[in-house]
C-alpha cells in the first residue's frame, strides 16, 4: 500500500512584514532584545519586547522568538548580533521587519 503524502506549506509562505516605531525611548535596542546571530550558529531572533511602547503601523506585531529575516529590505541572515544591531541603528523610525515564526526543531 502507498500512503498519500500531504504537501506541506513552505516556510516562506509564513513570512510576516511589519513596520514598527517605538517613540521617544531612543534606540530600538532599548525596546526590543535581539538575540542569536552567526557567532552562536543561529539566525538573529527577537527576545523580550516592551510592547506597551511599540507601535505597529503595518502588518502584525512581531512576537518573542520570531526569526529576523530582513530589516528595511536588508537581509540579515548570517550576520553577527553586533552587525544586526548596527543595521538597525542605521535606519530611522519606523523600520520594516520581515520575520517568520520558528518551526519545530
Automatic annotation (TrEMBL):
It comes from the Eukaryota. GO terms for cellular component: cell-cell junction; cytoplasm. GO terms for biological process: signal transduction. Residues 65-103 form the PDZ domain. This is PDZ domain-containing protein. The lineage of its organism: Eukaryota, Metazoa, Chordata, Craniata, Vertebrata.
Amino acid at each position: 500500500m502507498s500512503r498519500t503524502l500531504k504537501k506541506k506549506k513552505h516556510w516562506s509562505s509564513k513570512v510576516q512584514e511589519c513596520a514598527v516605531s517605538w517613540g521617544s525611548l531612543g534606540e530600538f535596542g532599548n525596546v526590543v532584545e535581539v538575540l542569536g546571530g552567526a557567532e552562536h550558529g543561529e539566525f538573529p531572533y527577537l527576545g523580550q519586547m516592551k510592547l506597551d511602547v511599540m507601535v505597529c503601523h503595518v502588518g502584525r506585531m512581531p512576537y518573542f522568538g520570531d526569526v529576523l529575516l530582513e530589516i528595511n529590505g536588508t537581509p540579515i541572515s548570517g550576520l553577527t548580533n553586533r552587525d544586526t544591531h548596527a543595521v538597525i541603528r542605521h535606519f530611522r523610525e519606523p523600520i520594516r521587519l520581515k520575520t517568520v515564526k520558528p518551526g519545530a526543531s
